[in-house]
User: Which sequence fits this backbone?
């Protein structure tokens, strides 16, 4: 594992840090609606993009900086460190862009790539279906060729930000006789097309950022087919590989959460002893510290792998599995430290840090599900890293 950054990388970090210190907007977590938050985040992404800090890993000809994997890692790390809001168009920037750059036609690249970085157009990912999540190849959404269009019928689910998206990348079965990964195609769908119905799903955090999406006889022009007909599964593998890999943002976020938790644990409530007086909690806090450091090392190992071989390999499942379960253990410890007050919602007078901890605890329950569940990551590690039988 390489534990150093080059002088060029340190220069990149310094320039970015200086820009962020002058531009990061004041933190705000009290938006009246999700639409308000999306508007705020869209303006932030536009500002970042205007200075060339979005999609730095994209080639220069498509608006990126042609930055290295390590520089992109540094970017995520510094954004989190500066407590900058997350980029709202991340599906476009991190998944759609690299997929189209690799597999899209020239016309598709010219039409779809430029509006992604400044968040002029947002994208969603129409992959998961009821009964086709972990087993994505079981998907049943159909696309039938009629004249110059595909007619798409089916249902998708858990589609993040579909209600704000202009476009969706969709996997559909174009060969009705096929099974598994064969006979699937990768299409670009205009989310405002007739026949698209989006129903938000309310999560326990109170937010409704993901949705059910129903497609009824939706017309998709044939020029929106990405790559060859029936080869969508192979293309989707590239899209999915960009969902895992390193997670510098999560590393920094959890380091900051831990520091905040340590301060809270040392401060006693009026008339009570500090949480750190409890030897079991002390051990759990020490364990959380060790696990955050281990997350850093897992990240660095994957980063070294990316630098040497250009792709993360199945070992990237280790990073995803470790950080997501580490997060849930850290949040369990937080709930013990905070006691009943930790369970107060934002706005309640006794809420700790205006209920941020409760929201964070609830949000990170999803971490062991999205981008592949823990069980799926363990299967990958067993079969593809350790070579164990299926
Ligand atoms: C916050 C969030 C955002 C998301 N955003 C999107 C999005 O934008 N677009 C999109 O397409 N999808 C999205 N998803 C969906 C996500 O990819 C799926 O939830 C995930 O793949 C799991 O699928 P599932 O929910 O259908 O669960 P299932 O696959 O039904 O799994 C149920 C349980 O069975 C276990 N299981 C399944 N198969 C195996 C196996 N072979 N071995 C052992 N255990 C197994 C799982 O681990 C899990 O515990 C999102 C999910 C979340 C939580």
Assistant:
């Amino acid at each position: 594992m390489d534990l150093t950054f080059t002088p060029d990388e340190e220069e990149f970090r310094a320039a970015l840090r200086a820009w962020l210190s002058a531009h990061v907007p004041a933190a705000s977590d009290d938006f009246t609606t999700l639409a308000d938050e999306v508007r705020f985040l869209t303006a932030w992404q536009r500002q970042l993009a205007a200075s060339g800090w979005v999609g730095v890993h994209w080639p220069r000809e498509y608006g990126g900086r042609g930055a290295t994997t390590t520089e992109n890692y540094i970017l995520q790390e510094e954004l989190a460190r500066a407590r900058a809001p997350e980029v709202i168009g991340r599906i476009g920037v991190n998944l759609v862009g690299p997929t189209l750059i690799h597999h899209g036609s020239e016309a598709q690249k010219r039409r779809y790539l430029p509006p992604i970085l400044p968040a002029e157009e947002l994208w969603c990912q129409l992959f998961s279906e009821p009964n086709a999540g972990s087993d994505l190849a079981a998907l049943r959404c159909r696309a039938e060729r009629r004249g110059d269009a595909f007619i798409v019928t089916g249902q998708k689910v858990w589609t993040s930000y579909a209600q704000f998206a202009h476009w969706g990348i969709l996997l559909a079965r174009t060969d009705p006789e096929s099974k598994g990964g064969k006979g699937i195609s990768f299409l670009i769908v205009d989310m405002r097309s007739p026949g698209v119905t989006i129903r938000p799903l309310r999560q326990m955090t109170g937010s409704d950022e993901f949705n059910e999406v129903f497609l009824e006889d939706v017309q998709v022009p044939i020029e929106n087919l990405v790559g060859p007909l029936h080869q969508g599964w192979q293309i989707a593998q590239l899209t999915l590989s960009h969902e895992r890999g390193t997670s510098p943002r999560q590393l920094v976020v959890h380091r900051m959460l831990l520091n905040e938790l340590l301060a809270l644990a040392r401060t006693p409530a009026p008339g009570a002893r500090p949480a750190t007086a409890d030897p079991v909690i002390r051990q759990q806090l020490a364990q959380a510290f060790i696990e955050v450091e281990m997350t850093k090392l897992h990240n660095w190992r994957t980063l070294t792998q990316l630098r040497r071989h250009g792709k993360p390999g199945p070992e990237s499942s280790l990073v995803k599995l470790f950080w997501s379960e580490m997060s849930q253990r850290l949040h369990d410890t937080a709930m013990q430290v905070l006691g009943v007050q930790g369970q107060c919602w934002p706005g309640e007078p006794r809420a700790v840090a205006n209920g941020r901890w409760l929201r964070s605890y609830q949000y990170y329950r999803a971490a062991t599900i999205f981008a592949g569940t823990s069980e799926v990551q363990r299967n990958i590690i067993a079969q593809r890293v350790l070579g164990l039988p299926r």
Summary: The chain is about 45% helix and 15% strand. The first helix runs from residue 7 to 23. Residues 124-125, 127-128, 133-135, 158-160, 210, 366, 369-370, 373, 375-376, 379 surround flavin-adenine dinucleotide (CB under 6 Å).
